[in-house]
Design goal:
By secondary structure, the chain is α+β, with helices and mostly antiparallel strands. The chain has helices at 2-8, 31-48; strands at residues 16-24, 60-69, 75-82. The chain starts with a helix and ends with a strand.
């Protein structure tokens, strides 16, 4: 995860809103099965790489989730929007 964050060349941010676009191959897994633990790993990596100072109440202002089916292109698209 940290490698992908480094490749994205993200600048440090203090407070963010996060948009998660979950892309699954099919509907076999329920959304709560692929979003919950994945978020923790991503947020921890954002802190570890210095993009965020922490992943608590003062840094994460909220997030939005959506899920989609794309048989040939599964994954997750994460957008960080800095909040003043």
């Amino acid at each position: 995860m940290a490698t992908a964050i480094h490749h994205a060349k993200l600048s440090p941010m203090r407070r963010v809103h996060i948009t998660w676009r979950w892309i699954e191959r099919n509907k076999r897994r329920d959304p709560d099965n692929f979003t919950g633990l994945s978020k923790k790993f991503v947020l921890d990596a954002l802190v570890q790489t210095g993009v965020l100072p922490d992943d608590g109440w003062d840094e994460i202002m909220g997030w939005t989730d959506s899920w989609h089916i794309e048989k040939d292109n599964p994954g997750v698209l994460i957008t960080l929007e800095e909040v003043a």
